[in-house]
From TrEMBL:
Keywords for this protein: Cytoplasm, Transferase
A GO term, aspect molecular function: ornithine carbamoyltransferase activity
EC id: 2.1.3.3
Annotated protein name in UniProt: Ornithine carbamoyltransferase
Family assignment from sequence similarity: Belongs to the aspartate/ornithine carbamoyltransferase superfamily. OTCase family.
Entry-linked Pfam families: OTCace (PF00185), OTCace_N (PF02729)
Length: 307
């Protein structure tokens, strides 16, 4: 079987992603019924983390155990990667010892270099540019709550970061629209977002205009990991970009609210919204587990028959 990596959401086709959603539904149901499902017995996942994580680490590590396999967490701080071992060398060594690798790091080019030298599938657990596993879970969550996302409008408020870029790529795959509103100077960078002439998104100066009639409103931290030095400047620049009750009132009445988490109540989102009736953030976090289990199964075993 040819190695498949998951570095960007469009590394898989719409058909493959839809298969993963279907599979995740089955895997989630088995899990909820406390039924054992161990297709990855004796398989090992290496988890290389250059940045902090709660959800991504936990969902991959627990997910791998729940599928019957093993996971090894490697922080850059205590591997030779942190002392300058070339990524290409690490990739050749790590991929001779394990069956799959997930990496959370800074520039996307690091993970691309790793994948080029890897003998086994590599999964992007977040880079400065993309967060494909997040959007996999988010779209699954949308489908669970509202059905098909095609033709719907997603409003992205705040920083045009890795999560935003991945929503934009997903829009092209699943045929929905994204309305983006960022402060001046923080707009979408199409090349960095991996977009080539797509007309699936529109930028709005005023966040209320972006949210108008949206089916889903979403945001993320103003300062992503790696940008801490800009925190104070960003707090000032983003002050009008808090998703609060007034802002979300411009969306459709049944609009959902999502946030990849961790969230800062009173900054990018008001507590009343994050903890309010439109928010599905806890389902969204949980679904990282189920969708990534489907992803790992697919990357290692290919399509399995859905019972
Ligand atoms: N949403 C997300 O990726 O969370 P963590 O940073 O906790 O992994
Ligand atoms: N945009 C955030 C997402 C964290 C899950 C970051 O990169 O820090």
């Amino acid at each position: 079987m040819q190695i498949k990596h998951f570095l960007k959401i469009n590394d898989l086709t719409r058909k493959e992603l839809e298969y993963l959603f279907e599979r995740a539904r089955w895997i989630k149901n088995e899990f909820k019924q406390y039924r054992r499902y161990w297709p990855l017995t004796d398989r090992t996942l290496a988890m290389i983390f250059d940045k902090n994580s709660t959800r991504t680490r936990l969902s991959f590590e627990a997910g791998m155990y729940q599928l019957g396999g093993n996971a090894i967490y490697l922080s850059t701080r205590d591997t030779q990667l942190g002392r300058g071992e070339p990524v290409e060398d690490a990739a050749q060594v790590v991929s001779r010892m394990v069956d799959m690798v997930i990496i959370r790091t800074y520039e996307h080019s690091i993970i691309e270099r790793f994948a080029e030298y890897s003998r086994v599938p590599v999964i992007n657990g977040l880079t400065d540019e993309y967060h494909p596993c997040q959007i996999l879970g988010d779209i699954f969550t949308y489908i669970e709550h509202r059905g098909n996302i095609a033709g719907k409008t997603v409003a992205w408020i705040g920083d045009s970061n890795n999560v935003c870029n991945t929503w934009l790529q997903a829009a092209e795959i699943f045929d929905f629209n994204v309305h983006v509103s960022t402060p001046p100077g923080y707009e979408v960078e199409p090349e960095r977002a991996g977009l080539y002439g797509t007309d699936y998104y529109e930028e709005f100066f005023c966040p209320h205009d972006a949210v108008k009639n949206a089916d889903l409103v979403t945001t993320d931290v103003w300062t992503s990991m790696g940008f801490e030095a800009e925190e104070e400047t960003r707090k000032n620049a983003f002050a009008d970009f808090c998703v609060d009750e007034e802002m979300i009132s411009y969306a459709k009445k049944d609009a959902l609210f999502m946030h990849c988490l961790p969230a800062h109540r009173g900054e990018e989102v008001a507590a009343e919204v994050l903890d309010g009736p439109q928010s599905v953030v806890w389902d969204e976090a949980e679904n990282r587990l189920h969708t990534q289990k489907a992803l790992m199964e697919y990357l290692l075993l290919g399509k399995v028959e859905i019972k």
